[in-house]
Amino acid sequence: MLRIAEEALTFDDVLLLPAYSNVLPKDVSLATKLTRDIDLSIPLVSAAMDTVTESRLAIAMALEGGLGIIHKNMTAERQASRVENVKRYESGVIHDPITVTPTTSIGEVIQLTRKRKISGVPVV
């Protein structure tokens, strides 16, 4: 059900003056609900614009507790690839990494890193 706020403010309507506070930053929660099922640690969502959000920003937003929305000004395959990059990344740990064997040639590794847009692969 759509709810319309009775009062709405913009940045020009509010002025925050610096002052002493008894509230410590560590005691403040910025958590919010984006939807009934999606919680955010910080109330930030990046714009789904091609000059703003691709996988790098979406990863950075997720690491801080926000949400980065991948823009749609690309093919569906490329967009899915960007989403996959975000979902595969978790605090510097890559789950289900792309690997090569000791018999894989350097040329094959270079092709793989260019194709998958990654900087390195574990040899197992």
TrEMBL record:
Keyword terms of this UniProt record: CBS domain, Metal-binding, Oxidoreductase
GO terms (BP aspect): GTP biosynthetic process
PROSITE patterns cross-referenced by the UniProt entry: CBS
Pfam families, per database record: CBS (PF00571), IMPDH (PF00478)
GO molecular function: IMP dehydrogenase activity; metal ion binding
Occurrences of domain CBS (ranges): 93-124
Similarity remark: Belongs to the IMPDH/GMPR family.
PANTHER family reported for this sequence: INOSINE-5'-MONOPHOSPHATE DEHYDROGENASE, INOSINE-5-MONOPHOSPHATE DEHYDROGENASE RELATED
Name of protein: IMP dehydrogenase
